Amino acid sequence: MVAIVNRIRRFWTLDSGAELIEMAIALPILLIVIAGIIDFAILFQRYEVVTNAAREGARVGILPDFAAADVQNRAKAYLAASGLTGTAPAPTVTYSAVTLPGGKSIDVVKVVVQYPHQFLFIGPAAALLGGTGHADIMLKAASTMRLEGAAAP
User: Fold this and answer.
1) Per the domain annotation, does 25 fall within a domain?
2) How does DSSP classify residue 17?
3) What are the φ/ψ torsions at residue 149 (nearest 5 degrees)?
4) Separation of alpha carbons 71 and 116, rounded Å
5) Which of 53, 57, 83, 140 lies in disulfide reach of 71, CB 3.0 to 4.6 Å?
6) For the chain, what is the domain count?
7) Is there a domain that residue 7 lies in?
8) Domain range spanning residue 102?
9) Is residue 37 in some structural domain?
10) pTM
11) DSSP strand E in the chain: where?
């Protein structure tokens, strides 16, 4: 009887297989962190493209003899050249006057570019768990520049 009790005690005190259990617990957490890093890296890259598209549109908009359609086409072309294609709303172009602190007024053009971003990993993972809060977001960037030479159209 003592031999059987000793065998049972020895069986319960063995550490073999503990690493496998630890890996089974840690691996999903590690994969979620890596997926989040990848998703936010793509988000940041796309935000930079949207910001640069607004700047490019504003650069065209400040030049004389360019219309709002030219500005929109330049911003859309920049988005397409950077690989962001899809159903992005048309960039908005506004010409206005801004009063400076000294009382002077200058003519400016403001270009606002928006682009819908869908998360690759976090959104579908949240949907599997019943959530929809992080499925997609709208990236938005604006650029304002002073008009060169001629007055606003």
Assistant:
1) yes
2) T
3) 65, -90
4) 20
5) 57
6) 1
7) no
8) 17-146
9) yes
10) 0.77
11) 92-99, 105-118, 136-146
